[in-house]
Amino acid sequence: MTSHLVSLTDRVAVVTGASRGIGYAVALALAKAGAHVVATARTQGGLEELDDQIKAEGGSATLAPFDLTDYEAIDRLGAALFQRFGKLDILVGNAGLLGALSPLGHVEPKDWERTLAVNLTANWRLIRSLDPLLRASDAGRAVFLTSGAPHKARAYWGLYAATKAGLEALARAYAAETKNLTPVRVMLANPGPLATAMRKRAMPGEDQSALRKPAEFAPKVVEMCSPDWTETGRLYDFPSDSVKSFRAPE
Prior knowledge:
The protein has helices at 21-32, 44-56, 71-84, 109-136, 149-152, 158-178, 197-202, 214-224; strands spanning 12-16, 36-41, 60-65, 90-93, 141-145, 185-190, 234-237, 242-244. By secondary structure, it is an alpha/beta fold. Strands 3-2-1-4-5-6-7-8 form an eight-stranded mixed beta sheet, with helices on both faces. Strand 1 (12-16), helix 1 and strand 2 (36-41) form a beta-alpha-beta unit. The mean pLDDT is 94.
């Protein structure tokens, strides 16, 4: 996928998990492209640092600190966006938890439920609350961050893989529902191995200096958020820089 300069002037973007890592980089890149970024995360301090950097770059942001498992807060976000903007142009569902890396029989129920709540249910609640606003845009774009985990089904990664597999099915169904007669386009994006805190937790012995950085991936997400983007229901794979279709079983 060849990068090109994208203008998002006067467009409104929601980014979840925006206080660090991939979410931070994507929010900053969207703001640099001209979007007004509504940044959500649990960490107030990280959001304030993002806001300072966005302003230093000449952009604008609104901070919305809350936990994505506070589903009523997601509904309040949708209502506030409607009152202020009357639409939403971009949703980037980035926030996610790694959860326990352990045999499935050893996963604690509270860890299972928390990881499922953040990685899957919260994204459904975002769709539920923000879909009318995305449809009100002339070119609503939704990008959900996934992983290679659901396709590899590795030992001890069952919890994380299951939540991302569910997210992929959710996003693809949403893409199918909005493909015809709406301006909404929905993509999944796999960043691959990047130098992030989540990756460090998953691979504690890995040398992160050899990994690509979230700032390298962010412009690709910006492209998928552009009104010029027409693909929907597909997967953008950053390691191979390619857009892939999901194949039905033989």
